[in-house]
Specification:
Number of domains: 1
Structural class: alpha+beta
Strand content: 5-15%
Radius of gyration: 26 Å
Largest sheet: 4 strands, mixed
Order of helices and strands: HHHEHEEHHE
Shape: elongated
Number of strands: 4
Helix content: 55-70%
Number of helices: 6
Length: 218
C-alpha cells in the first residue's frame, strides 16, 4: 500500500510530466509557426526579386545564349535579336484572348503543388503586375496549397507562355511549358462547361502527375 508521502510524490511527478508536455507542445507550435513564416517570407522574397529585376533578366540570358551560339560556330554572324512576339503559344485554332478572358473571370482558384514548383511559378510570374502573391501558403510535407485570384491566373498563363518560348535553358522551358499546359487545360474546361452563380467549389489546379495504378492480375 502507498502511504500519503508516496501519493504526494506520484502526484508531483504527474504534475511535472503534464507541465513538460505543455512545454513541448508550446515549443512545437513555435517551430511550426516559424516554418510557416519562413515559407511565406521566401515566397514574398521571390516575388520582390522578380518585381525588381523583371523581364530584363530573361532578355540578358537570351542575349548571352545567342552570343555563345555565335562564338561556337566560326564564321557565323551573330543573330540579330528578335522582339518577343505577343501572340500566345496556344494550339492553332484557339483564341488566346478568349482563354485569358475566361481565366480573368475565375473568382478564386486553389493551387496544389510541390513547394519547389510553387517557387518556380512565383519566380517567373511575380514580375507581372497582375500577379499577387497570397499572404497565406499552407504547406504539408513539402506540398503547398494556395488560393489565388483570376488576375493572378491570367498573369501565370501569360508569363509561363513567354518563358516556355523565350527561355534559353531547355529545362526551364520544359517546366514552364508543362505548367502552362495544366493552367490552360483547366481554363479550357471552364470555357467548355461554364458555371455561374450558385454554391460551387473553387477551381482546383493540381500539379501532381503520376502513373495510373495497375491491378496485379492485369
Amino acid at each position: 500500500m502507498f502511504g500519503s508521502g508516496d501519493r504526494d510524490l506520484i502526484e508531483q511527478i504527474l504534475r511535472e510530466l503534464r507541465q513538460l508536455r505543455e512545454c513541448v507542445n508550446a515549443q512545437q507550435h513555435v517551430i511550426d509557426q516559424a516554418r510557416q513564416d519562413a515559407s511565406t517570407t521566401i515566397t514574398h522574397g521571390f516575388a520582390e526579386i522578380r518585381r525588381t529585376v523583371g523581364d530584363p533578366l530573361a532578355d540578358i540570358r537570351h542575349e548571352l545564349a545567342t552570343i555563345k551560339n555565335s562564338m561556337s560556330e566560326p564564321g557565323r554572324q551573330p543573330a540579330q535579336p528578335t522582339p518577343v512576339q505577343a501572340a500566345s503559344s496556344q494550339p492553332e485554332g484557339k483564341d488566346p484572348s478568349k482563354l485569358l478572358k475566361a481565366a480573368a473571370g475565375i473568382s478564386a482558384a486553389e493551387l496544389q503543388m510541390h513547394r519547389d514548383t510553387w517557387a518556380f511559378l512565383v519566380e517567373h510570374a511575380a514580375g507581372d503586375r497582375h500577379f499577387h502573391v497570397p499572404g497565406a501558403v499552407d504547406e504539408d510535407d513539402g506540398f503547398v496549397t494556395v488560393c489565388v485570384s483570376g488576375p493572378s491566373i491570367v498573369a501565370a498563363i501569360t508569363s509561363l507562355d513567354r518563358v516556355s518560348r523565350t527561355e534559353p535553358d531547355p529545362v526551364t522551358r520544359a517546366i514552364a511549358g508543362h505548367l502552362h499546359q495544366r493552367f490552360t487545360e483547366t481554363v479550357d474546361e471552364i470555357i467548355r462547361d461554364p458555371h455561374r452563380d450558385g454554391d460551387v467549389e473553387h477551381v482546383e489546379i493540381v500539379i501532381d502527375d503520376r502513373a495510373n495504378r495497375v491491378d496485379d492480375e492485369h
